[in-house]
Each structure stands twice: as C-alpha cells, then as structure tokens.
Design goal:
With 364 residues, the chain is an alpha/beta fold. The chain has 15 helices and eleven strands. 43% of the residues lie in helices and 18% in strands. Strands 3-2-1-4-6-5 form a six-stranded mixed beta sheet, sandwiched between helices. Strands 9-8-7-10-11 form a five-stranded mixed beta sheet, sandwiched between helices.
Length: 364
C-alpha cells in the first residue's frame, strides 16, 4: 500500500511517500502560492515515478477530543472547522490542504492528530482548576501535543528494551524549537507538559512555557498591553530567545563560557526539564526508560548530560562516549534506568496509523 503523508504549513507542503513501511520518496515544496499548485506538483512527481497513491494521511495539530485517526468525510471536516480556533496557526492551513486534496484525489483522506495520543490522560491530569461551566463551554482542558512523536519513540524504546510496551514506564522528551515531555505508562500517555495550547510546559525556542497566569492581567494593567500583544510576546518573543537573544541550542552552548545570558538560558531550559522528568517519575511510581528526541534531544549531548546528572539518586548512569556520539542507547551497562536518544519519525508513525485504520475499516 502506498500512503502519501502531508504536513501542510502556511506557505509550504512537506510530503513523504511510504510503500508499507519503506520511505520511497520525500520532499518539500516551499513558498506555495496556493495548495492546489503544490499538491498537483506532488501528484505529477509520483506519477512520473510510476507510483499510484492509495491513501493520503494529513498531520492535523489539534484534534480536540479525537482519540484516533479518522477517515475524513464532510461531517469530519465540519468538526475540524469548529476546532481550528484552538490552533489557528496550524489547523487553518491544514484544513485548506485537506479540502484541496479531497478535490484532487479519489482515494481515502486520513487525519492523524498530534493531540490523539494524549487522549488517554486521566481526568485528574487533564482538568484545570477553573470553573467547570467555563471549561465545558470553551472545551478548556489539557490536550497535549507532539503525540505522534511521543508515541513513536515510546514504541521504539520498548522494542530496544525487548519489553512489551504495556509493561513499561517511559518518559519521552521531545526537544526542538517546540518542547514537551510525556509520561507513558503501559504504552498510554498519562501526563504531558503541553496543555490547552502548545504554550504550556517547558521553556522553548520562542515560547515561555509555564508562567504565573497573573503576569497577563498585570501587564495589561501596567503596560496597557493588548491581548494580541501578550499572545505574541509569550509565543514568539519569549523562551530561549527572550533569555539570550538566540534560539539555536548549538549557538547558545557555544557562548556558554563567555555570555552570562546564554549560560542562564541553558540552565533555565535544563532546570525546567529536570523538574518535569522528576514529577513524571513520581506520577508513574518509577521509570524504566528516559527517551530524548527532536532536534535538541537527538543532538545536544551536553543538555542530556546535564539533565541526567540530576537522576543519579535513582540509579541513572550515562555512558559518556555513547552520549557524546549521539548513540541510540546512551545509558551505561550498570544503569538502573535505560536512557535512549531516538530519532523521531512522525511520518512513519502516521503511515502506520493510516494503514491500520484502513485495514480495520475494510474489515467492518
């Protein structure tokens, strides 16, 4: 089965074509004037290679309370239209791309949601302590994001440990420009650091992560900041960028010895991550494995080293050479906890999910 996986942004279309689990073609079309033009180009490229597309999988960032991928129908599209206010930057272009594909293809279109993996969070983990009528009316709860990545690396870690996924306690750390941590108990997400939006949780490239919510009305009162200005500040002018003027962890680390702001940025980033990992070890009553993924997670050995040094008390031991060389297994032989550096593959996970959905629907 040939499945085309699309990741549609505001001005770009990334695509990966899988033949079962093998990647046979991939690319990115940037500065698209309209999605129809970009997707027609992909269709032409696949035709020229003699590949017939059997299904199209779409990455949809916010799926609300959808817990599984879905075949897109007109009612599903209507539901997605209602959800787009929860993640307008992502869901709006994704929905436009889906509409275009429905026009250009006759094969099944499948939505795979970034939030779906976290729909197994227990009520105590996803509920905010705000008036319940307000929360219900506006669907305010913790949704969590990067679900496809957390799901993929948790499965890969279980395979590497040669342990059934349902018998594991794994903490997955997706660290890139956006960052999140998940507590995965028996293969199911039971807590995660991002919340109602991707702003909550860890310090990120330009996002603040956790702050005291009282800062918002304080700034509205003191500085006469508008809602839009505060939203822009917390999402695009905060995080590592606010702390040291840089967002790339390599640049920040290169200035560690000479720039006090860069040093503070790295330390704040690591400290917040240590706190979340510690909290999730307590929440799951132990841990078998800690997994790092994403651009920073996979490459910044010094971040992993610094963070893991806080968990010696539970028997975490790092193989320094393996860690510095970004090997998949970076824990030492005598470590009480497995530690992995696993390259994420969200597109492959989406292809797997799409294939599974199509197989199940054909049996019904």
């Amino acid at each position: 089965m040939n499945i085309l996986i699309l990741n549609i942004g505001s001005s770009s279309v990334k695509y990966d074509l899988f033949q079962d689990e093998s990647l046979v073609h991939k690319g990115v079309i940037e500065r698209v004037k309209n999605y129809e033009q970009g997707i027609k180009q992909i269709i032409l490229e696949t035709k020229n290679r003699g590949i017939e597309i059997n299904a199209v999988g779409h990455r949809v960032v916010h799926g609300g309370e959808n817990s599984d991928p879905v075949i897109i129908t007109k009612p599903v599209l209507k539901q997605l239209e209602k959800l787009k206010e929860l993640a307008p930057l992502h869901d709006v272009p994704e929905i436009e791309g889906i509409k275009t594909c429905m026009k250009l293809f006759t094969v099944p279109q499948i939505a795979v949601f970034d939030t779906a993996f976290h729909q197994t969070l227990p009520e105590k983990a996803y509920t905010y302590a705000i008036p319940s009528d307000v929360a219900k009316k506006h669907r305010i709860r913790r949704y969590g994001f990067h679900g496809t990545s957390h799901h993929y690396v948790a499965e890969e870690a279980a395979k590497a440990m040669d342990k059934p996924l349902e018998k594991t306690k794994i903490i997955t750390c997706h660290l890139g420009n956006g960052c999140s941590v998940a507590a995965v108990l028996g293969g199911k997400s039971v807590d995660t650091s991002m919340g109602f939006t991707p702003l909550e949780g860890l310090v990120m490239g330009t996002r603040s992560g956790d702050i005291d919510p009282a800062i918002i009305p304080f700034l509205q009162h003191k500085e006469k900041y508008s809602y839009k200005k505060i939203e822009e500040m917390l999402n695009k002018q905060s995080g590592l960028f606010a702390l040291c003027g840089k967002t790339d962890m390599r640049d920040i680390h290169a200035s560690f010895e000479t720039d006090a702001r860069a040093r503070l940025a790295e330390e704040v980033f690591c400290y917040r991550l240590v706190k979340y990992i510690g909290a999730y070890i307590a929440a799951m009553d132990g841990v078998n494995a800690i997994v790092f993924t994403g651009g920073i997670g996979e490459n910044a050995w010094w971040i992993r080293e610094k963070v893991l040094s806080h968990f010696k008390h539970i028997g975490v031991r790092v193989n320094k050479k393996a860690n510095h060389e970004n090997h998949e297994l970076i824990s030492a032989f005598h470590s009480m906890v497995w530690v992995f550096c696993i390259k994420t593959n969200e597109e492959l996970m989406m292809a797997r999910e799409a294939k599974k959905l199509l197989a199940n629907s054909s049996h019904q």
